[in-house]
Amino acid sequence: MTDSTLGGILKVAGDFVIHRMGYGAMQLAGPHVFGPPRDRDEAIAVLREAVERGVDHIDTADFYGPFVVNELIKEALYPYPEHLRIVTKVGARRGEDGSWIFRREPEDLKAQVHENLKRLGLDALDAVNLRIGTREGTDFEPQFAEKFGALAELQQQGLIRHLGISSVSAEQLTKAQAIAPVVTVQNLYNLADRTDDALVDRCAAEGIAYAAFFPLGGFTPLQSDTLAKVAAGLGATPHQVALAWLLQRSPTMVLIPGTSSRAHLRENLAAADLVLPSDALAELDTIGA
C-alpha cells in the first residue's frame, strides 16, 4: 500500500494516522438507522472487505441501531487489526419508536462512552466525537465546557485517546480547544452544502481532520445535471466525482461514505484514485454557489 492509495495519509496526532478515505458504518443498520440490517451476512462482508482493501478508520456510534452497528463491527473484525482506528460519537440515544433523542448530560456522556467500549470490545476508544447537533453559534450550548469536559476527563483516564466534535460551529470549536486538543471536526459538507467553507479552511490551517458526513447528500442524495455531465465526461459515476471533489477540496478532508453493499463500497473507494482536472473543478464549484 502506498501513500497515494485511499486519498493519501493524514497525520493529525502522534498515533492518529489514517488514510483519508474511510468508511461510515451508519447504513449497516436497518431502515432509518434503526433495527437489524436487511442482510446481516452482507453487512459483515462489507466491513471485512473495507478493511481488506485498506480502509483504516471506521466511523460508528452506539446509537446506530441502536447497538446493532457496533455489534456488527465487533463480530466482523474483532480482534481488530493493529492499524485500524474506530471513531465513535456520543450525545444521543434512540427512542423505542426510532426517534433521535439528544442526551448530553455529563454523566450520560460518560455512560455512552462505556457502552461503546463494551460493545466494541475495546479498552480505549481511538477517537470520540461529541455530537452537538447545530452550527448555529455559541448560545446553543451554555454548558458546552462541562459536557466536552466530561469527555476530556475520560481521556485523562485513558479511556479515550483523541477527542473530536460533530455538527458544530467555528465558535464551538474554539470553545472545545480551550478545554482539550481537538483532532477532528465532523460536519455536514458536500458539493451542494458549502456552509462550512471557512471552517474547512480553518481545519486545514490548524491540522485538524475535517470529516464530511453525508458527502453524497445523505437522506437526500445529490442530484445535479452539472455533476452528471462532469462525471460522464470523466468516465466516472456522479458519486465518485462528488467524493473526489471533497478530497481535492482540502488536504485535511476525511471521507466516511457509508454503504451496506460491497459493490457500492468498491465504487466509493475507487473515487480516491480519481483526479479532477481544473476545468472540472471549476464547473463543479458552481453547484455550491
Molecular structure report:
The chain has 289 residues and is an alpha/beta fold. Helices cover 38% and strands 18% of the residues. It has ten helices and twelve strands. The strands form three sheets. An eight-stranded parallel sheet has the order 3-4-5-8-9-10-11-12. Strands 1-2 form a two-stranded antiparallel ribbon. Strands 6-7 form a two-stranded antiparallel sheet.
In short:
By secondary structure, the chain is of the alpha/beta class. It contains ten helices and twelve strands. The chain has a domain at 27-188: NADP-dependent oxidoreductase domain (TIM Barrel).
Total number of helical segments?
10
Q: Give the fraction of residues assigned to helices.
A: 25-40%
Mean pLDDT, all residues:
93
Order of helices and strands: EEEHEHEEEHEHEHEHEHHEHH
List the helices and strands and how they pair.
Layout: E1 9-13, E2 16-19, E3 23-24, H1 40-52, E4 57-59, H2 68-77, E5 85-90, E6 92-94, E7 100-102, H3 106-120, E8 125-131, H4 144-156, E9 160-166, H5 170-177, E10 184-188, H6 197-206, E11 209-213, H7 225-234, H8 238-249, E12 253-255, H9 262-270, H10 278-288
Parallel strand pairs: 3-4, 4-5, 5-8, 8-9, 9-10, 10-11, 11-12
Antiparallel strand pairs: 1-2, 6-7
Helix pairs in contact: 1-2, 3-4, 7-8
